[in-house]
Prior knowledge:
41% of the residues lie in helices and 7% in strands. It is built from seven helices and six strands; from the N terminus they run E-E-E-E-E-E-H-H-H-H-H-H-H. The chain has helices at 90-107, 132-143, 147-151, 155-172, 177-192, 194-197, 203-222; strands at 9-10, 19-20, 28-30, 37-41, 44-45, 84-85. A hairpin with a 6-residue loop joins strand 3 (28-30) and strand 4. The chain is rod-shaped, with a radius of gyration of 39 Å. The N and C termini lie far apart (96 Å).
Amino acid sequence: MRHNGRAPILASQMRPEHLNLRENEPRMAVCPDCRTWHRLTRSMIMPHRDGVAVPKDGLRRYRDDTAPHKPSTGRRCSGSAQRIDIDITPEEWGEQLLAAETTAAGRRTARPIRKPRPQVAPAAAQMPAATRPLREQLAEHQQSDCTRCKVGRCARVVELRQQIRRTTQIAAAPAAPIYGQLRTALRDHRATCTPCTNGEPCKVGRRLTARMTGIAQNHLRSGPLMRSA
């Protein structure tokens, strides 16, 4: 086997994971052209093929016309018979391989990155009564034949959802005492009122809900509610 005419590659300049210099094992190296492992013979990479299909020229490879074509696994790789100058000892190669593996392991984080869990939307029964008119408007708009909703985001839907979110935040931590009193009164009223329990608010329930909605809307227009001392 004759070398391919290229300058020899020093083993000390190769990546340690592209060599195998372990004792009691055949010496192997990665071909610089096709990036596949091959055995070293007389410090040269064994001849091999790169796997690229060779186009058929219609000529037979044998003089005998009755002999079949010999199948080809590709053309000869240019990295065949590449000389590898082993200028390091197996111990030095092992140290370089260990250092490379340690560096690669240091780049990988041991801390798992967890994705935040999506927040589950509260049920309609858990939403404050002040958001009911807004939710009804949102449901009515989504059921309508809105061309903007079909194409993408609708400004009306975004505005309603923002109002619902802000109103919910106010109801979750009300700052004005009157808002808390109205919410308590509405909850006590619904516990004893049959129409309100069935989802058809009575006159008193509608009045309490309207007052709570007015307080929330005033808060959205004027700013934060004053905290009680």
